[in-house]
From TrEMBL:
Residues 119-134 have a biased composition (Basic and acidic residues). The keyword Glycoprotein does not apply. InterPro entries: CBF_beta, CBF_bsu_sf. It is found in: Nucleus. This is Core-binding factor subunit beta. It comes from Gasterosteus aculeatus aculeatus. One of its GO terms (biological process) is regulation of transcription by RNA polymerase II. Residues 119-145 are annotated as: Disordered. It comes from the Eukaryota. Keywords: Nucleus.
Length: 145
């Protein structure tokens, strides 16, 4: 099952859900959307968590605010959440943008997975056909025994 949908950019640009969230707004929760942002979780290989770079978590850009950037796959589309949170009031603004670079990487992974599945299916069909031919022609199967 691929992690992303075909035509990610089109889905991002045309679905109302993404259009709403791509405009800077004060509260995603008003749209019924709650995001749990994780910055650099431990990866599948068990490596240690990394500290996020200033590009992703910036406390120095403006006093009293933290600026955040979080890549994710949302509804099959590679996006980047960008925003800020006021450290006193714990409110802020944020929006989603399409992540073209990650979308291309995920599309390549999906295509590779599709090609591998097609290769395995073809190999299985070839073995199955060969097995059926051996069963149909007992003389040939005796020669190989």
């Amino acid at each position: 099952m691929p992690r992303v949908v075909p035509e990610q950019r089109s889905k991002f640009e045309n679905e109302e859900f993404f259009r709403k969230l791509s405009r800077e707004c004060e509260a995603f929760v008003a749209t019924g959307t709650n995001l749990s942002l994780q910055f650099f979780p431990a990866n599948l290989h068990g490596d240690q968590r990394q500290l996020p770079a200033r590009e992703y978590v910036d406390f120095e850009r403006e006093t009293g605010k933290v600026y955040l950037k979080a890549p994710m796959i949302l509804n099959g589309v590679c996006v980047m959440w960008r925003g800020w949170i006021d450290l006193q009031r714990l409110d802020g603004m944020g929006y989603l943008e399409y992540d073209e670079e990650r979308a291309q990487q995920e599309d390549a992974l999906a295509q590779a997975a599709f090609e591998e599945a097609r290769r395995r299916t073809r190999d299985f069909e070839d073995r199955d056909r060969s097995h059926r031919e051996d069963l149909e022609d007992p003389v040939v199967s005796k020669i190989w025994d």
